[in-house]
Each structure stands twice: as C-alpha cells, then as structure tokens.
Design a protein that fits this description.
Largest sheet: 7 strands, parallel
Distance between the termini: 38 Å
Strand content: 35-45%
Radius of gyration: 14 Å
Shape: globular
Strand order of the largest sheet: 1-5-9-13-17-21-25
Order of helices and strands: EEEEEEEEEEEEEEEEEEEEEEEEE
Length: about 170
C-alpha cells in the first residue's frame, strides 16, 4: 500500500529474481514523471516494472533495453488500470509475450501519445500483449516490433482493446 512519487529518476541495470527488475508495485499507485528504466531484468515478469492491483500514473517515462524471461520486457501490468502519457518503449524484450508491455487479468490501461518501437517477444505481442485485458490506446505509434509467433505490434486474446488514431506501420 505504497504510493511513491518519483521524478527525474533513472533505474539502470537492476535485476529481480521473479518480478519487477527495477520496480515492483503491489496494491500501490505510484506516480512516475521523467523516469528512465534502462537495462533492467526480471527472471519472469516485468523487466523494468511490475504492477499488480496498482494504478500507476506514468508521464514522460522511458523503458529501453529491459528484459523479462517470460512477459513484459518493459512493463508487466496485471489487474491494474495505469495511465501512460508520453511513454517510450524502445528495444525491450520478453520470451513469451509483451516485449514492450504485457497486460492481463482485466487490466485496462489508458495509453496516450506513447511510442512503442523495436520491442521483441518470441511468441506473442512484440509491442503489447493483452490477455483478457482492455487497453485504450490513443494517438500512439507502433513500429519495428518483432514476434516470431503472433502480433508484431499487438497481440490480444479476449478483452476489448481499442485504438484511436496513431500509426501502426512497419511491424
């Protein structure tokens, strides 16, 4: 039950045995502004950040070159409704799904004016994986993602994702 406010902070080369290479938020609502996550790793979930029942607010945050052994190379989001504005997901990777971002368990993130580029997932969702999740994506760009399985830019299973505006070229 922690609600930290972080501004102008950089998380570099951190690691976690299971979840949240740099930040693990469970039942908290962190507010992050001008925060950088780079080169962080998690054995399973959320190379940069892991949120569960956590309605984070991220503004002008960068996730670059973070890695998860299973899902959410940049950000793993479960049963949460975070708000992301001006967030960059660049060159993050996950083995299963959601190289940039992984959403599941009724997650409903609001993603506005974000950029997802060059993220990779071996199986599903190079940019974003949605499993029973319903993100609203507005005026965001997706490009250069790789998934050897399904969904270069976005993979969705169940849920009701919605995209308005934006660019989905080159995936």
């Amino acid at each position: 039950f922690s609600n930290p406010h972080l501004t102008n902070v950089t998380f570099t080369n951190n690691s976690a045995g299971v979840r949240g290479g740099a930040i693990f938020s469970n039942w908290g609502d962190p507010v992050l502004q001008n925060v950088i996550f780079t080169g962080n790793t998690a054995l399973l979930y959320g190379g940069g950040m892991f949120g569960n029942d956590s309605n984070a607010i991220l503004t002008d945050v960068t996730f670059t070159s973070n890695t998860a052994g299973y899902s959410g190379g940049g950000f793993h989001n479960s049963n949460s409704n975070p708000q992301l504005v001006g967030v960059l997901f660049d060159s993050n990777s996950a083995v299963y799904g959601g190289g940039g971002m992984y959403n599941n368990n009724a997650a409903a993130p609001v993603i506005t004016q974000c950029v997802f580029q060059a993220n990779t997932a071996t199986l599903k969702g190079g940019g974003i994986y949605n499993g029973a999740a319903s993100p609203v994506i507005t005026n965001s760009r997706f490009g250069g993602h790789i998934s050897e399985g399904k969904g270069g830019a976005i993979y969705s299973w169940q849920g009701a994702p919605r995209a308005e505006g934006g660019d989905f070229g080159g995936n």
